[in-house]
From TrEMBL:
Residues 5-244 form the ABC transporter domain. NCBIfam families: heterocyst_DevA. The keyword Acetylation does not apply. This is ATP-binding cassette domain-containing protein. One of its GO terms (molecular function) is ATP binding. The keyword ATP-binding applies. Keywords: ATP-binding, Nucleotide-binding, Transport.
Length: 371
């Protein structure tokens, strides 16, 4: 099956007075059939702009954006409308029509499609409303329903025409924690059963575990693949544990030669190296130092001080030829991670002991050579 969304080097600008302000920068993103992807990031980072471009609500200015195999760059309003009808949408505030019953709200979506007779539309609407647990509320009006029920109607309306793509914009922000999770699980399960891909824009980290992949935006750019990077460095973490950790991560950049960790300081962070190389150096009492090892991408450091609750046992410094990028996990989140994942705890302990033993061996060898 072909890709549901294919984006290459997409830029977008808004007019601000006489100037153009760039909002999206070189976005590349692919979404495959049946994939559930969460798009998250700080307020103002450009998520809604990207979603509205994918949802054919704006015209594409620069780059390539293919939705359901149609190139949207250069598409006119009529072409965009035709593709729009093949997509399902779920919004933050449900957007139900108050003067229509639950069943009518869902049927409207089908009647916009070509080739649907009224009885067919009714049968299909009842079927999906039963699937979302509202088979007993067909004649109710939106005002008679709870927030969670309204969102279920919106999900039924979005999926009734079996779109191959479902877009959801902050679908849980008007719901309590439990309802938000239930509604998201229902939405993603039904979408997958129908073979639809799902793209959800959300700040709500409680629903991250309902997705296959999380994509983060920062200042109009797509961030690195946190999930992929973490699972390479720490393969012992389950997807659920990864999703819990991702919202707590911070990305830091250190210029060439800069110190990331200083020997003797209190250990308060754990680091996963994403780009560049670092040198692990032992400062010796005679004001000399010894290079213990060099680490490259997809490795980690900083675990010894945290696991042993001691001060840093070595200095870690970016090599002089390139800047390094690290993902930082704060002390509290590190302890949460090792408490929830015994395998990760065992792996980190094993690595820490191994590093310390090698260090001890190297130090005695160094002493015997210099004596
Ligand atoms: N129509 C517009 N005209 C000018 N600037 C806009 C317009 N819409 C959005 N922006 C600006 O574009 C940037 C990105 O906005 P966007 O709504 O896409 O971000 P977001 O990540 O969805 O934010 P939030 O999570 O708060 O909804 C913001 O700086 C916003 O102020």
């Amino acid at each position: 099956m072909s890709q549901i969304i294919g984006i290459q080097n997409l830029n977008h600008y808004y007019q601000e007075g006489k100037k153009q302000k760039q909002i999206l920068f070189g976005i590349d993103l692919q979404i495959e059939p049946k994939e559930v992807v969460i798009l998250t990031g700080a307020s103002g980072s450009g998520k809604t702009t990207l979603l509205s471009l994918i949802g054919c609500m704006r015209s594409v200015q620069e780059g390539s954006l293919k939705v359901l195999t149609h190139e949207l760059k250069g598409a006119n309003e009529i072409q965009r409308m035709q593709i729009r009808r093949r997509i399902g949408y779920v919004f933050q505030h449900f957007n139900l029509l108050d003067f229509m019953t639950v069943e009518q709200n869902v049927m409207v979506s089908l009647e916009l499609q070509e080739n649907f007779s009224h009885p067919q539309a009714r049968n299909q609407s009842r079927e999906i409303l039963t699937a979302v647990g509202l088979g007993q509320h067909l004649d109710a009006y939106p005002r008679d329903l709870s927030g969670g029920q309204k969102q279920r109607v919106a999900i039924a309306r979005a999926l009734v025409h079996r779109p191959r793509l479902l877009l959801a914009d902050e679908p849980t922000s008007a719901l309590d924690r439990q309802t938000g999770r239930e509604v998201t699980e229902l939405m993603t399960r039904l979408a997958k059963e129908q073979g639809s891909a799902v793209l959800i824009v959300t700040h709500d980290s409680r629903i991250f575990s309902a997705s296959d992949r999380i994509v983060r935006m920062e200042d109009g750019k797509l961030d690195i693949d946190y999930q992929g990077q973490l699972s390479i460095a720490l393969p012992t973490l389950t997807d659920k544990q990864l999703f819990e950790l991702i919202p707590q991560l911070k990305m830091l950049t250190f210029p060439p030669g800069e110190i990331v960790i200083r020997q003797g300081e209190l250990a308060d962070k754990f680091y996963i190296l994403i780009e560049g190389e670092v040198e692990v150096i032992q400062e010796l009492p005679n004001s000399k130092s010894k290079l213990l090892k060099t680490l490259g991408p997809n490795t980690y450091f900083g675990e010894i001080g945290l696991l042993q609750e001691t001060k840093r046992t070595a200095t870690v410094r970016a090599t002089t030829d390139a800047a390094v990028k690290v993902l930082v996990i704060e002390r509290y989140d590190f302890y949460q991670m090792v408490v929830t994942s015994k395998m990760t705890h065992a792996l980190l302990n094993y690595q820490a002991i191994k590093s310390l033993l090698i260090r001890k061996f190297k130090t005695s060898y160094y002493k015997s050579m210099t004596n």
